[in-house]
Queue: 2 jobs
Job 1
Amino acid sequence: MKHVGRSHPRLGDTPFLTGKAGFVGDIALVDQLHMRVVRSPIAFGRLRGIDAAAAFAVPGLVAVWTAEDVAALPPVGFRLAAAPTLEPYCQPVLAVDVVRYVGEPVAVVFATTATAAEDAAELVALDIDLLAPVLTLTGSSRGFEGETRPAEAATVRKAFGDLAGAMARADRVVEVSVGLDRDGAVPGETRGVVARWDGGRDVIEIWGDARLAPANRDALATMLGRPLAGVEINAVAVGGDFGMRGELYPEDVLVAYAARTLERPVRWIEDRREHLIAADQARAMAATAKAAVAADGRLLALDVEFAIDQGAYLRPTGTMVADLTAAMLPGPYRLEAFRAVGRVRMTNRTPAGAYRGAGRVEATFVRERLMDAVAAATGSPPLEVRRRSFLTPEEMPADRHMTTLGVPMTIDSGRYQSLIDQLTKRFSLELVHRRAIDRRAHGELAGVGTAVFVETSAAGKYEHVTLSVDPSGNLELVTTASELGQGLSTLLAQIVADIVGADPERIRVTHGASTRLGDGVGTFLARSSVMAGTAAQYAAELMRDKILAGAEALLEVPRERLTIHSGRIREADRHFGTALELADLARKMLPGGPLAGADGRGLVTEGWVEGEGMTFPYGVAVAVAEIDAMTGLVRVPRVFIGYDVGNAINPALVESQIATGAVQGLSSALFTSLDVSPAGEPLRVGLTDYLIPSATESPSVDVLITEDAPSLTNPLGMKGAGTAGVTGIGAAVAAAIDEALQVPGFTTHLPVRPVAIRNLLRKRSGKSERG
Amino acid sequence: MSRNIRITMEVNGEDRTIVVEARTTLADALREGCHLTGTKTGCEDGVCGACTVLVDGEPIRSCLMFAVQAHGRAVRTVESLSDGITLHPLQVAFHEHHAVGCGYCTPGLLMLTLGALERSPEIDEDEIQRVVAANSCRCTDAHAVVKAVRAAQTAMRAGRE
């Protein structure tokens, strides 16, 4: 049976269903210490002194560290695009002289129990002189009193074509000013890390998110002055990552350093308040975007200036979000000229990092709001405005004349209009539109909005896997890419199963295995199915060759006449009888033996893939919004998403990624933001303040997956899907709200505030009363 | 800091006697005192429901209950659902309906919906959705969870007949 393309239930669910899966908080090591972080309660101030004397009265307290005690540790550096000008923006592992956001680690306490560590941390007194915090993008231009580093850490510029000429030739120029609030991944499990120094081997063993284990291992080894072999990062089960987790944080460095220095295992598990003030946040941005439109309604050029609220420090992702935002602004449209200027602005807010759909969510919101404004300005239907300017399949691959993340940007494939047409037909969207019109005619506030988006995936230079067959006929695929609940293990097993001729259930995928493989990159930018999937394909093809060569020698039957099914090698022209079990062959092909294969290694193969450019999957998001006139509350009962994934290895997993991504996107559009008081104190410090949409608020998400535009960058034609659901929702919901209210351009900012809608409706009814 | 207290509770059918502080939550007592780490904590505010267990058959947030309050009562955790060989119909249904994401909230969702189905075996889809909405989850499709619970309801009904 063929496995690729089937909605195979996920492999490896059982530990999660039975409570056996080992998350980091489930690890308890003998003699372990608990670390608790003392965090700044002040958004911006001069750190005058730290008095820990009272903490030492707590039974079980072992140590209290401040910046002086960790002076040997450099600040946390960059994983991507390091540059000397960015170094002043790196975060020290503990604050030195200045605190720059509420939640910044100032001291750490180590004790024999978690409660003792918490009790002691509360007794550490901080003496901080207040400075005036900068909390918004508009305020930061005046700079910070008492900071030597400029408020704008970096400026990203991308451009092509003759912008001035296109603007001059334009029939009209349409402009919008739009923005997004801060939000965050806020996964079910908070962050955590456990480390132990194995003195016998002189290795610091770390347990935690291993999404970026190779890079983090290298960074930690450098920071701690150890050989790479002196640091091991072991994968654990992870309760939601979404790009927030897995990057190196100050706490990770502190735990690793403490395990070595104190010579006892050290455990740090974040509480929810800490998570909401100290884990990476994202999305906050403001943009002014102009479109030059020709007389026939086609787009000529885009000119966008945007600023990103980076918070107090740059994170290991550096300026990635600004870079991707700029690069993804053109989306699916043909442009003669383009210019983007992205400003990375520092504020006294929690540092911002990557969050699912990083850069694409921001770019899509700006561009699609602008396209709706063009539609309103030209009096054309929104979908018609888009259709006129789509790049056509004949124009693919389309060179975007710029780079992103250092890679030349060429859109590999895409059939944008076809996807819209298919989605419209598949879910009878004409009826959905007509129903909204009908409801409005009856006085209801209902509308439908559409956003078209281009995604990107598969950056990162290479990926490496090994594949082996053990003497019992079980296969193991080892990868540094991570299973984060997205079903990667299942996808990889399906790919290997088809090629080798084995059952997926007999294939164990060992993920996050940087301790087994020296190299590999990890999981980000929806790259794993593409990169690790292609490496797995190569390893599986080599394995099939080896198996057939071994069987040929053993059976004295030419390999052309042999097939492999469910781990049994048969003669293709015989209907009955198994010539050889894979297990028997594996035993005969053990390394060193006469049948060990040309390389003498037996049934072991490797798959190595080098980055052959990025893939650019694309999609359409359609949202239905209905507004309660009394309260101004917006409800989104239905969402439709069409997405071209190139090759859906497991359609159910893709659909699940899209459906859940859509709910996360809806969350940022309607419900959640991480706002602060005028003094910079976070207002969302628990899940009572930060309201995650539940089953009741979750819309029904209808997904259409197409495979019309396979990627040219990998032989299976795969494109990533991890961020597809989240990217277009904000823009689609904004358009739906505008239509429901019959006020084009009303929604300029997400999340939408019911009070703004209420004010509009009140003003409107006031007018009608007077009229 | 805090007085130690000896409590005895029935956990998954077995009497367990452990020593806790007065302030120790039932969630911590199960995880650390009984080494049953299947019960998760996500917010410790009683909102997310990852820590949901059954106490005398009722779903409760174990982060909001002190361990001493469970003295003399019967607690069931996710570890009670399967004997290690056969999965409970709810577990099977969650697997088959792609109702497991990262898996962190799964134990809480299983115990919450088990409690609901044991109390009201015939609840309808709307009610199931309201029950599921009591817990929060960031990466599982809530509608898949509702479908799974519906399927489990049918399987459990067949099991009773």
Job 2
Amino acid sequence: MRSSNPAQPMPRGRVALTAGEIMARSRGQRYYSWLLKLLVWLAAFLTAGVILLMVGYILVTGIPNLTLDLFAWKFTTDNQSMMPALVNTVVMTLLTLVLAVPVGVCAAIYMVEYAKRGNKLVKVVRLTAETLSGIPSIVYGLFGMMFFNIFLNWGYSMLAGVVTLAIMILPLILRTTEEALLSVPDSYREGSFGLGAGKLRTVFKVILPPAMPGILAGIILSIGRIVGESAALIFTSGSGKDNLMFGKSGNFFADLFAPLFQSTRTLSVHMYNLMSEGLHMKEAQATAVVLLLLVIAINAGSAHLAKKLTGDGQK
Amino acid sequence: MARFKETAMQYVFLAAACVSIAAVALICVYLLGNGVPTIFEIGLPNFFGLTWKPSQDFYGIFPFIIGSIYVTAGAILVGVPIGLLCAIFLARFCPAPLYRVLNPAVRLMAGIPSIVYGFFGLMVIVPVVQQLFGTSGKGLLTASVLLGIMILPTIIGTAEPALRAVPQSYYEGALALGATHERSTFTVILPAAASGVMSGVILGVGRAIGETMAVIMIAGNQPRMPGGLLDGLRTMTSNIVLEMGYSTGLHRQALIATGVVLFVFILIINTCFSLMKRRKDA
């Protein structure tokens, strides 16, 4: 021990640095900082590059193949028209939303407006919603196939696909609506109750309107998921190529609901089939363009809503 | 009457809230109820064995479990460093005009359907790997790169808000102690946002292991133990899609059981995720 006073040992590291050491250290830190900066920019360029490459590749190879024939009303073996698939995608998206949005919104209303703080049920609902949102689409597909197609004996049918998709997007709608409702200030509720409105009236007339943009943003996100989904659908709604057809039996209701029990493919499933058959790469490229444009449009819609939301927040 | 309506609607809302519970219960019951008996019917040694030959009643899915793990690990190796650095860039380095372009671009990436990713992988990455290494181009490396790209938006989307949520005073404190902008970002802000960043990584793992349509296009799909970086392999997800179409009887049951194993993996990952989140909230 070099220290003369055991009660006050010498500090391990030296406190004072010479001028040269300080300069060397700061130079070292400069290189270190420069390196980190380089890495960060590199990663950003890489990400941006990948996006550009992808979008560019799909557009450049796909647009020349995007002929009018591909939008012919009927699918034939000579002309792999994507029109039936496009129509199916729209119909299935609407039906899925009709099923999932009321349930999701009502569930969120219960969780935010009705349940008491610390309610056990709310915790369980949150946990299950989180679980649902983590389940991969192929597992949904398996479940849908076993339950709707086999157990309920619906066969490959649009309805099976729609219900499977509705379960899949439910957590998304639930969460976004919950957030939207929570962001409505409590003074709105107090004001409404103060004026003598009941709970129900307060929810529908006072709380839902300002929460609407947030709910819509969730719906748009769900549309994106529905349009892009393929793994959950190939075993539930199958890959029927034909147009939706109302029945011709004469029984009004049976005819009306006939398309629900028809096997139908969405645009994504159409693209998967084209690719796995491997015979129609040009058509697959064209389909990729249409899917990409749809996604861009959906994103633009949600960005517009988000801007509106933050705009309102600043006021 | 109004009172009746109030009560009735309250029960309607309550019922709606219970739908997600019912859905999870139904999925668990159906998958486990179908899968677990199958696993025991096939026998544990056979089911977790190395050979998958349904025509000879060999239903070993171990190679596919390993395949899924390899592909996921590869995706993490590719996606996490780039995604994390990119999130740091977006949160701390990005000039405002660039942000207005890059942020929507990352969101677009999150919205692109997996089948389109698969198409891109098949048409662009596979030929590149073919050229570089003289193999078929389909395999672990290709799948890792593509999945790494696919989980980028997941990681960026979770890590960036986490980085932004770190109080500005942390950063200013580090600056005042003489650290550079980069150093304070990496040594002060990043550790403070660690749990948020980790949940992004876990979400990415979930997405990678559950990915189906993209992997099926580019992984090669050979039903054997995965070999080297360039060899083809098959994941649990692609095994289901590839053979479900023509399978019957025990073969089909075995595919459903594969889905159950995947489901259990996902449940474990989800549990990690919620534990991470609880720690963050605490």
